[in-house]
Amino acid sequence: MKKLSILFSAITLLVLSTSAFSTEKMDEVMKKMTEALSLTEAQQEPAERILTEHFSQLEAISQSDAGKFSKMRSLRKLTKTKDQKFEELLSAEQYKTYLALQAEKREQFKNHRKQAAN
Length: 118
What we know:
This protein is mostly helical. It has helices spanning 2-19, 23-37, 41-63, 68-89, 92-117. Helix 1 (2-19) crosses helix 3 and helix 1 (2-19) packs across helix 4 (68-89).
């Protein structure tokens, strides 16, 4: 149940952040991703398309009338799809770094939630 609470909180945070997702924010995300993963010029455009589609679908999930468990399932499926697309785009080493960065972000979010609960 605690995991569901954390996941729901993650969804809420993502929903709030994606509803205000702008071109400037996308540029910032792409810059960080390009640096962290050493993306080539050929990888940058497909990566941006993957992220744009991901955030667009996130917003659709957040705006839906579905229940929270349905939204969580949709979020998991969406994240899995995004990760699969990045696995196809990135080299093995880049994808390993990508997964490590994703795990780090999840851990930071968990720590943030714990601090907010106290």
